[in-house]
Amino acid sequence: MAKEINTIGVLTSGGDAPGMNAAIRAVVREAIGKGKKVKGIKRGYAGLLQEEIIDMKPRNVSDTIQRGGTILQTARCLEFTTPEGQQLGAEVCRKHGIDGMIVVGGDGSFRGAQKLASLGINTIGIPGTIDLDIACTEYTIGFDTAVNTAMEAIDKVRDTSTSHERCSIIEVMGRGAGFIALWTGIANGAEDILLPERYDYDEQKLVNHIIENRKRGKQHHIIINAEGIGHSASMARRIEAATGIETRATILGHMQRGGSPTCKDRVYASIMGAYAVDLLCQGKSNRVVAYRNGDYVDFDIDEALAMQKGIPEYQFEVCKNLSI
Ligand code: ADP
Ligand code: F6P
C-alpha cells in the first residue's frame, strides 16, 4: 500500500531560475488544499543539513509569483554528495516529520533527490534551470524568461554594433549546453552561433564568414557564443586582428538568471508544482515532472537521468540558413 504523506518539504537547489517562486507557491497551496502540512527548506541541501526549515502557509507565498529568484534561496552543497551527508539529510527530514520532499533544480539536484528517495523519503523532482539541459523534458523553469532577457539585451547590443559597423560577440549562459545560444541565435537573427555541441573551433571559417558578410553589405556581425565555449574577449581580439573589423565582446552573465518570470514560466512552474504534490499524494517517489509533446508527465528519476538530449539539427540548420 502507498505510504500516506502528511508533511511535504520543498527546496530549490543549484542555480536559481525565474519561475521557481511560482513552483514553490503552487506546492504550498496545492498541498495545503489537500490537507497536508508544508515545510520550506532554505538554501537547498545545505539548508537541509543545517536544519534551516520553516513552516509554509498560503500567506507565506503571497506576492511571489511575479518575483525572480527563489524566496527559499538556493545553494550548492558538496557535503550532500557524500553518503554521510545524504544519511544526515534523510535523518533531518524524519526529525522534522517531512515524509515527502519536492526538489526544484537541475540534474545535479535530481541526483540528490534520488539519494533521498533511496533512503526512504518520498521525493519528486521539478526541472528548474535556465539551461534547458534536462533530457527528459522539453521545458525547464526559467529558460523562457532567460532567453527573453538575453534576446532583449542582444537587440540592444545589435543597435550599437550596427551604428559602428562592428562585429559583436555576445556570450550567453547555458553551462555545457547551447540551448540559450540556439534560441537567441534564431530570435536575434545572429550571423553565427557557437554551440558547445557543434562548434569545430575553426576560427578561420568564422573570419571568412565575417569578411564575406561585410562584402554582402551587412553592417554588423553578431556572433552568439555559448559559455560552454567561452573565451569571448580573446576571440574578439583575434577576430579584430584577422578581419580588420572592430570587434567587441559582451558577456551577459547573471542578468540572464534574474527578473520577473514570463507568463509561460509562471504557468508551467505552477502546474509542475501542483503536479509534484499530486504525485506525492498518490504515494509516488523517485519521479521527475516533465513536459513532453504538449503534456505534463513524469518519469522515474533513474530513467530521466539516463536520457540524452541534443541540439535539434533542423533548428540549428534554420538558424544558419536565415542569417544570409
Ligand atoms: P543543478 O541541480 O542545477 O544541476 P548542481 O549540479 O550544482 O546544479 O547540483 C546542485 C546540488 O545538488 C549540488 O550542490 C549537490 O548538493 C547536489 N548534488 C549534485 N550531484 C549530486 C550527487 N551525485 N549526489 C547527491 N547530491 C548531488
Ligand atoms: O545552471 C545555471 C547557470 O546559470 C549556468 O548557465 C551557468 O553556467 C551557471 O549556472 C553559473 O553558476 P554560478 O551562479 O555559480 O556562477
Give an account of the 3D structure.
- The protein has 324 residues and is α/β, with parallel strands linked by helices.
- The protein has helices at residues 20-33, 44-49, 83-95, 107-118, 143-163, 179-187, 203-215, 232-243, 263-281, 301-306, 313-321; strands spanning 7-12, 37-41, 53-55, 100-105, 122-127, 167-172, 192-194, 221-226, 247-251, 287-292, 295-300.
- Strands 3-2-1-4-5-10-11 form a 7-stranded mixed sheet, sandwiched between helices.
- Helix 1 (20-33) links the parallel strand 1 and strand 2 (37-41).
- It starts with 6 loop residues before the first strand and ends with a helix.
- The mean pLDDT is 97.
- The structure holds adenosine-5'-diphosphate and 6-O-phosphono-beta-D-fructofuranose.
- 6-O-phosphono-beta-D-fructofuranose is lined by residues 15, 129-131, 173-175, 227, 257.
Structural class computed from helices and strand pairing = alpha/beta
The strand order across the widest sheet is 3-2-1-4-5-10-11
Ligand set: adenosine-5'-diphosphate, 6-O-phosphono-beta-D-fructofuranose
Distance between the termini: 61 Å
Instruction: Compute the CA-based radius of gyration.
Output: 22 Å
Low-confidence stretches: none
SSE order, one letter for each helix or strand = EHEHEHEHEHEHEHEHEHEEHH
Shape field: elongated
Strand content: 15-25%
Q: How many strands in all?
A: 11
User: Could you estimate the helical fraction of the residues in percent?
Assistant: 40-55%
Mean pLDDT over the residues = 97
Largest sheet: 7 strands, mixed
Count of discrete alpha- or pi-helical segments spanning 4 or more residues:
11
